[in-house]
Amino acid sequence: MLAIRFHGRGGQGAKTASRIVGTAAFLEGFVAQDSPIYGAERRGAPVAAFTRIAKEQIRERGVIVHPDVVIVADASLISDPTARVFQGVDDRTVVFVNSSLSPQQVATQTSCSGRVTTLDLTEIALQRVGKRGALSALLGAVAGRLVGLHQESIRKAIAEELADLGLSPSVIERNQTVAAQCYETVQPVTIETGVPQPIVPVQLQAPIYEPPTRGTARISAAANSVLRETGGWRTFRPVLVPDKCNGCWLCFTYCPDGVISMSKDDRPVIDYDHCKGCQICVHECPTDALVAEREKEGEVAWRAK
Amino acid sequence: MAGEMMTGNLAAAWGARLADVDYVPAFPITPQTEIVEALAKWCESGVMAARFVTLDSEHSMMTAAGAAAATGARVFTATSSQGLLYAMEVLYSISGWRTPLVLVNVSRALAAPITLESDHNDVLAARDSGFLQIHAETCQEVLDSILMAYRIAEDERVMLPVIVNLDGFYLSFTREPVILPDPEQVKQFLPPFQPAHLGFKASSPHALGVAVLGGVTYSYFRHQMHLASFNALAVHQEAAADFARIFGRRYDFLEGYRLDGAEDVLVMTNAFASKGKAAVDAARAEGRRVGLLRLRVIRPWPADAICQALRGRRAVAVLDQNLSPGQGGILFQEIAASLYHEPVRPRALCSFIGGLGGKNISEGEFRAIFEQTAEAGVRGKGMGPVLLYTKTEHREMTELQMLAAGPIAGS
Questions:
Q1: Which of A204, A218, A220 should be substituted to probe chain B, the one whose Cβ sees the most B Cβ atoms within 10 Å?
Q2: Among A113, A269, B169, B321, which one has the highest count of C-beta atoms within 10 angstroms of its own C-beta?
Q3: What is the distance in angstroms between the Cα of A227 and the nearest Cα belonging to chain B?
């Protein structure tokens, strides 16, 4: 069995990518299984998805703890401990990172023990698909190529899965074209599967009773959301073009996270430590005074958690 | 005889009044309404210092009850049947918040078809909610159990809500003598409610029942409720001892009736246990060595005490006033599970279903239970579930079906 784990941020298409690979494998006659896991649905929050491909019945479910391939849709996830991107990764694991950096740079910077490959899918999507976030077809194509699936089945799978999302035929076709280019850019790798992991019975330790101050699902640490910096969730940041701003306060009103405050002269001030990069302000601004700029890896704001 | 005549409903209201509760959210439903009506009257006249609030449904009522308890208030409320089921999802939240309020459920069979009379499918639907459950046989026990319920619920070792159950009609509207405990003595038995983990202040806000994902956190808190419920076994015994010392009445998890020398034992709950005891007396008078075990505390499940009472018997019959369609009697399953590890378990375990929708259980039916149970004991093989339904009742039912069908078309 081949196990592929996808990591992305809500809205980037990690789940759809896992389905594209699942469908493509199914179309080629394999037994396939795909599933996502996520919390309360939030754009930008870490999500993961899992695709398993086998020639016989798959008897695993849920989280993939020992992946053969890890697909990282957003490099900022690597330094987010809650995302656990490198969990179970060893020197056999193929790790693809959507990054403008070289594989060696990523491997060194992140101390990744896996076999790292990279491609700047965000830039490709921006230039050729014309949309920032939607990487599902591209991620699917890369993952499919890495594990040796055929280009035609990937193409069919993209059509099926994107049609299911309600996308128009022209958008689907453009995705297929760009995905095919990504497919050809990436080289398939030899993956050593089925290496048995030693199984040791765990030591069970049932908790004892604790007084209700500890034993109740209760949080007394007030106003702690300030401590959880979510600026690192951004792939794109909203940036103000002051000359265009008419001071209408719409961005302030629409911001779902309350990270836009207004200055005395009616200009938005964005708290980049907490802005998740949802781009709702960019979308709502009537004078295009807010624009989306891609976060650059390694820069200060990008590193914020 | 000491005391005064009062219904089970009034006894329940007196329990809340004597417990000096702070808040009573209410919604009417037969056969419970009398409880909240009495409390409304007392709050209005000022003899009770509680805030009485009418809500727009049982769901809102239980939400208000849990929220008020989360502020540190002592809360009482009551419902029945469909009302309990409508509030069901909130029950799980309340126990998860570890808010130790007391809910009285007046048992009434569940629709459809709709009825007003008692059986226990309503309260047993809340079996897994994390609420403790005390089932009462008499009006006195209703009142006393509410006082004990607050004492147990509010203990730091427990901090779980409690359902006190009484049968609709057979207790709720039935008057019998009840001794009202002295309010000063109640204060001695029941200290003020001062929870360390509850209470909202603007200066120290906190969140209860927060979202947890991944299962590790959820498992921990759910398991804490399980441990808290089991802690209630010891806490109950302490409360029972104190209650007996102060008021002279003793309540245990179980009540054994004529178990000494009993070959066969009938297991029952709630008000009909009185009839079961009468049936035991009648059978004993004829030389049959039978006894009765009444389950009073259903959650936590007092498995050790149950095994101790039933081990070595020839046969045990469990009379469930409930029916889990496709399975049988709910309490039968739990008794059977408890006895599985017992080295000297009864030779036969028999399941009877009776009193559904408030149907009477006659002396003759009890006698049939004793006879069939004795035979099963001799045979060494259990039986059931057997529905207690007589030939006469079957004939009545057939006649009703003919009436319901109306004239046959074309004739």
A1: A218
A2: B321
A3: 16
From residue A11, alpha-carbon distances to A7, A278, B129, B269 in Å are: 12, 9, 37, 56
**Is the separation of the CB atoms in B349 and B335 below 8 Å?**
yes
Choose among A174, A148, A146: nearest CA to A158. A174
On whether both B233 and B271 belong to a single domain, the answer is no
Please check whether residue B411 lies inside any domain of the structure: no
Distance CA A110, CA A97 (A): 11
d(CA A152, CA A57): 24
User: Do you find a cis peptide bond into A207, omega within 30 degrees of 0?
Assistant: no
In a mutational test of the B interface, the residue from A61, A216, A219, A220 whose CB has the highest number of chain B CBs within 10 Å is: A216
Task: Please tell me the distance from the alpha carbon of residue B107 to that of residue B116, in angstroms, as a whole number.
Answer: 9
Cis check: omega of the bond before B181, within 30 degrees of 0: no
Given a contact cutoff of 8 angstroms between Cβ atoms, the answer to whether B29 and B116 are in contact is no
Task: State pLDDT tens for residues B190-223.
Answer: 999 999 999 877 887 888 988 888 899 999 999 9
Intervals of chain A under pLDDT 50: 301, 304-305
Q: How far apart are CA A141 and CA A184, in angstroms?
A: 9
* B179 CB-side CA count, 13 A: 9
Residues of B within 8 A of A219 (CB-CB) are 206-207, 210
Query: How many domains is chain B partitioned into structurally?
Result: 2
Domain assignment of residue B347, given as a range: 254-395
Residue B265, CB half-sphere, CA atoms under 13 Å: how many?
Answer: 28
- B28 and B172 share a domain? yes
> Chain A to chain B, count of Cβ pairs less than 8 Å apart?
61
Please give the structure tokens belonging to residue B5: 């005549």
Indicate yes or no: CB of A206 within 8 angstroms of CB of B223. Answer: yes
User: Per residue in A261-286, is it b (16+ CB within 10 Å) or e — as a string?
Assistant: eeeeeeebebebebbbbbbbbbeebe
CA atoms of A71 and A17, how far apart (whole Å)? 10
Pairing between strand A115-119 and B207-208?
unpaired
Instruction: Identify whether B134 is part of a domain.
Output: yes
With CA atoms as reference, the chain A residue closest to B98 would be A216
Please state the pTM of the whole predicted model: 0.90
pLDDT score recorded for residue A305: 43
| Architecture in CATH of A2-185 | 3-Layer(aba) Sandwich (3.40)
- φ, ψ for residue A110 (rounded to 5)? -100, 0
Q: Tell me if B403 is assigned to some domain.
A: no
Whether residue B137 contacts residue B272, with contact meaning beta carbons closer than 8 Å, is answered with no
Q: Indicate whether B196 and B319 sit together in one domain.
A: no
CB contact under 8 A, B197 and A206: no
Domain spans in chain A, listed from the N-terminal domain onward: 2-185, 228-303
Q: How far separated are the first and last CA of chain B, in Å rounded?
A: 63
**CA B105 to chain CA centroid, nearest Å:** 7
Q: With a cut of 70, which residues of chain B have pLDDT below it?
A: 1, 409-411
Q: What is A228-303's CATH topology?
A: Alpha-Beta Plaits (3.30.70)
B404 inside domain: no
A68, A193 contact by CB (below 8 A): yes
> What number is the ipTM of this complex?
0.88
Q: Which of B208, B212, B227 has the CB atom closest to A209's CB atom?
A: B227
Give B133's strand partners: B163, B299
**What are the beta bridge partners of residue B106?**
B166
